[in-house]
Design a protein that fits this description.
elongated, Phosphatase 2c, domain 1, single chain, 6-stranded antiparallel β-sheet, about 375 residues
């Protein structure tokens, strides 16, 4: 039933689209005018012969058709002609009381004017809405392209290789990742999730990435950067109720160590060359919640051929038709299965496994970032 209802609504929407943009060309206009005249003549004939038993207005079709095709000009021309035909048809029909014919004709004229006016206003408003929707769709597409431009999908520097991918449930969203070199020996990267979806989340995401560029180049300490990001977000967040979760990491190539802090984000996973997985647990609350919040900083060595997986909560919370979450166990099993794959293939394999689990119906934005020490 719901499917049939959607099909009818879609058909009517397409029909309105055609009516809004359709105008008879110079070649087709005479044909349409002839058709309207024929319908009007047929209505006159029916009125003349059966007017006393009719329960429908046979003049309504040519009147509305003329107004829809030729707009105001058509309505101004057709209604006087239809009123004359209606009155003459009433005079010729022997079963109609001619004493009230003038009042009946005036009543019909009022009805036609109201219906045509309502129809033309509806078409005009519908056309305006469609133009606004087209403009909004163009703006959203530009926002989507700009958002993707902020997130490169690959990065290589020294012994560090990064691959990332983001999938939004809407055209734009709030999941993001970020990476850049810092100084001579550091690589900075993070993955975050802005509360909400759509344009508002994408704008806040761009703001947060701007804050990260501002403070991420001033210190190799993840805890320091998160604290500064939180302060800037609190200043901006006056009267709002938004927050951001983030896993922020800095890799020191000389020490071969990863320094990280976690602001309420799902734990990153460190996959060793022998298949063991280490959870890099959270160390603090999300950004934008408390002004004086602090984040603990942790560190771990990263050996050659070890990989770090960061992801947004849309991955763990992806659900199948039975309502089961993808969950941590499936994620760890999927990550282990990529041990012999290249980094980009491993990233694609994890994403594919999640999509297959939920039959491609992601309920939330999904971002994945993988780092490998070569």
């Amino acid at each position: 039933m719901q499917k049939a209802y959607r099909a009818v609504v879609t058909y009517l929407d397409r029909l309105l689209d055609r009516l809004v943009v359709f105008r008879p060309s110079h070649r087709s206009a005479p044909l349409w005018k002839t058709t309207i005249a024929a319908l009007l003549l047929a209505a006159f004939a029916v009125r003349s012969l059966y007017g006393h038993v009719l329960s429908v207005d046979v003049f309504l079709l040519p009147v509305l058709l003329a107004a829809a095709l030729f707009r105001n000009r058509g309505m101004l021309l057709i209604i006087p002609v239809a009123a004359l035909a209606y009155a003459l048809g009433g005079l010729l029909c022997t079963g109609i009381d001619n004493r009230h014919l003038l009042l009946n004709t005036l009543g019909q004229v009022v009805e036609w004017v109201l219906l045509c006016g309502f129809g033309l206003v509806t078409l005009d408003r519908y056309g305006t809405i469609k133009r606004l929707q087209a403009r909004q769709a163009s703006d959203v597409e530009l926002a989507r392209r700009l958002q993707l431009a902020l997130m490169q999908n690959r990065f290589e520097l020294g012994t560090v290789t990064l691959r990332g991918k983001v999938n939004q449930t809407l055209e734009v969203g709030g999941d993001f990742y970020y990476f850049r070199p810092f100084g001579q020996k550091y690589v900075v990267f993070c993955l975050g999730d802005v509360m909400g979806k759509g344009i508002a989340a994408s704008l806040l995401m761009a703001l947060v990435m701007g804050f990260m560029f501002e403070w991420g180049k001033k210190s190799p300490s993840p805890a320091f950067v998160l604290r500064k990001l939180n302060q800037r977000l609190i200043q901006w967040n006056q009267g709002q109720s938004t927050f951001v979760t983030m896993f922020y990491a800095v890799y020191d190539e000389e020490e071969e160590r990863l320094y990280f802090a976690n602001a309420g984000h799902p734990a990153a996973l460190l996959l060793s060359a022998d298949g063991n997985i280490k959870n890099l647990e959270g160390t603090g609350i999300p950004l934008g919640v408390m002004e004086d919040a602090e984040w603990g900083e942790q560190q771990t060595p990263v050996a050659s051929r070890e990989r770090l997986l960061m992801y947004s909560d849309g991955l763990l919370e992806a659900r199948n038709q039975s309502g089961e979450d993808y969950g941590m166990e499936r994620l760890q099993a999927s990550l282990r299965a990529t041990l012999r794959l290249g980094l980009e293939d491993a990233l694609n394999q994890v994403e594919s496994d999640v999509r297959n689990f939920c039959q491609g119906r992601l309920g939330d934005d999904l971002a994945i970032l993988m780092m490998e020490r070569t």
